[in-house]
Amino acid sequence: MAKNRIIFSSVAGLVVAAGFLVLASSRTVWVGRTDLEVKFIVLDPNSGSRIPSATVAVDWFADVNHGEQLAPQHFTLKTANNGEAKSSVKDCMSFGSGGSLFHRSSYSVHLPRWRFRATAPGFIANEWEYLAYGDTGKRREVRGGNGRAIVEVVIPMRRDASK
Questions:
Q1: pLDDT at position 44, please?
Q2: Torsions phi, psi of 91, nearest 5?
Q3: Which structural domain, as residue segments, surrounds residue 145?
Q4: Is residue 73 part of a domain?
Q5: What is the dihedral of CA 9, 15, 17, 18, to 10 degrees?
Q6: Which of 93, 126, 130, 161 is the S-S candidate for 117 at Cβ 3.0 to 4.6 Å?
Q7: What are the DSSP E strand ranges found in the chain?
Q8: What is the CATH number of the domain that holds 49?
Q9: pTM (2 decimals)?
């Protein structure tokens, strides 16, 4: 009888441990849509100061919408006194996973197919850059919250020495 109790206790302990491992290692994966705010920050890297009244030109190469190719769009933004210019994109695809004991939570947003460049008086105009591709070290800090995401794009500009 004592031997049966030991075997039963051992099996029950293994079942509980296995159940805990399954629950601890499972995670939730999801896909959805969110609004995205793109914040351009134009700055002088030598002084670290932001550049007011800079112009950020954006070309938006639209994706296919319900089987039809959408025409590219062009628009410009002006930086405010704080050197920032903002634009919003509705219903960007977002996806991620809920964390567990062995997995970290993740969150990501598909960035629009934008190319951009900045110009400002007294500075050299930037080359065109792509939002969704390229140097990720100076942009693409995607944060979620309150039903939207924010990506900050830092655009460093060099002073024009000829002026």
A1: 95
A2: 55, 50
A3: 28-156
A4: yes
A5: 160
A6: 126
A7: 28-43, 55-60, 64-65, 68-69, 73-78, 84-98, 106-109, 114-119, 129-130, 139-145, 148-156
A8: 2.60.130.10
A9: 0.73
